[in-house]
Amino acid sequence: MYAVLVSRFVLKELSNPKRYPAKIFRQIVLKIFELSMDPFPQDYKHIGEGYRVDVGEYRIYYEVNQQERTVTVLLVGKRGDDQIYRELKRRFG
User: Fold this and answer.
1) To pair with 76 at 20 to 30 A between CA atoms, which of 16, 48, 68, 87?
2) Are the CB atoms for 61 and 89 separated by under 8 Å?
3) Using 50, 70 and 90 to split pLDDT, how confident is the model at 72?
4) Contact 44, 50 (CB under 8 A)
5) Greatest CA span in the chain, whole angstroms?
6) Strands 70-78 and 3-6
């Protein structure tokens, strides 16, 4: 099992009920929990130095440190959200 670390950006994003209705919020939290058991699920994609999994129209971007057995959730956002793409570019180049 991997420890899951969540960035402040993600905590702030997920705390906005207008952006993340209860049903979507639960699905995202469940997917993050599943990453603690398997950080490389069947539907993951390699993005730069990190990874991405999809939850419907939402994306979870994360990094994995296999030596420390940690998953760090860096970003969560809706597909097509310019803010998320800008933040991805800033982090991964």
Assistant:
1) 68
2) no
3) very high
4) no
5) 37
6) parallel
SS3 72: strand
C-alpha 11/C-alpha 57 separation (Å) is 19
**CA torsion 15→17→18→19, rounded to 10°?**
50
Confidence tier at 92 by pLDDT (50, 70, 90): low
Angle at 37 (CA atoms; ends 47, 9), nearest 5 degrees: 50
Span 19-53, pLDDT tens digits = 888 898 999 999 999 999 999 999 999 987 889 99
The dotted CATH code for 3-92 is 3.30.2310.20
* Number of residues that make up the chain: 93
